[in-house]
Every structure is written in C-alpha cells, then in structure tokens.
Design goal:
The structure is a single chain. This protein is mainly α. The chain has one domain. 74% of the residues lie in helices and 0% in strands. The chain is elongated, with a radius of gyration of 16 Å. Keywords: Membrane, Transmembrane, Transmembrane helix.
Length: 86
C-alpha cells in the first residue's frame, strides 16, 4: 500500500475511530488524543525503522490529536445532552 494514502487516510481514520470508541466507553475526553498520538508515533517509527530512514516526527503528531480532542469533545457533548421525553 502507498505510504501517502496510509498516512493521510487510513491511519487518521483508524486512530479517530478507535479514539472515539474509547472516549465513549470511558467518558474521558483525553483518551482519544493520547491514543491518536500513540498510534501515529508508532506508525511513523515503524515506517522509518523499516525503510532505514532517520527518525523524525511529522506535524501530524500535533494536528491529529487536536482534531481528535475536538471530535471527542463534540461526541461527549452530544451524548450528554438531556433528552426531552413527552
């Protein structure tokens, strides 16, 4: 698989999905960005180790956890809204 597609589409989608599921299960907003950061750093370290490149972290390690934090906040806000029952 192309590393470009992997890093821009597949890894963020998996990290967000797993992070949101963990956030819903634990009701903890911080779980999603920490998991997103861990998964992205793991992917980048494996990618650089396999191809024998020097290890350097990309800007995705800041952007993806921030997006994940915002998404987790919105998810918990929507789930915690009171419902109007008739």
């Amino acid at each position: 698989m192309d590393p470009f597609v992997l890093q821009l589409i597949i890894i963020p989608f998996l990290a967000f999905a797993i992070g949101i599921v963990l956030t819903i299960a634990t009701k903890n907003i911080i779980a999603a960005p920490i998991l997103t950061l861990a998964l992205n750093v793991t992917y980048e370290s494996m990618y650089h180790y396999i191809l024998n490149y020097s290890f350097s972290l990309s800007s995705w390690n800041i952007i993806l956890p921030l997006i994940s934090l915002f998404t987790a906040y919105l998810t918990l806000t929507v789930l915690n809204q009171p419902t109007d029952e008739l």
